[in-house]
Amino acid sequence: xxxxxxxxxxxxxxxxxxxxxxxxxxxxxxxxxxxxxxxxxxxxxxxxxxxxxxxxxxxxxxxxxxxxxxxxxxxxxxxxxxxxxxxxxxxxxxxxxxxxxxxxxxxxxxxxxxxxxxxxxxxxxxxxxxxxxxxxxxxxxxxxxxxxxxxxxxxx
Length: 156
Prior knowledge:
Blueprint: H1 2-56, H2 98-108, H3 116-130, H4 140-155
Helix pairs in contact: 2-4, 3-4
């Protein structure tokens, strides 16, 4: 009888440990599953709302790859847009050539790469020297000065 009580007691302890382990596994796993479920539901709601906004805004994009092939008749033209002309794209001009930059440095008297402040200071000095009012209306040097200032300012 003593052995059966010990046997039952050991069996109860083992079952209680097993149930405790199962409880820990499933409660943590259940929590994990609930968190994943909430994340999936929130993600679904965000995507659904985004799709609704895209439909309601009237946005409709269709890509036709044939229009972008070489030699196609539907070439892109900036002039199709209202208010655009060639002057609007002057900021997209290519960088000055190296020899032009070197000529500008020589004209300004720089031996190394100048800063914006140095360019502005030297420009004011040379503008006083080459201004057309001082040089009897000769504006060639002033035009050259303005051009070379623009070249240097693009490289800084």
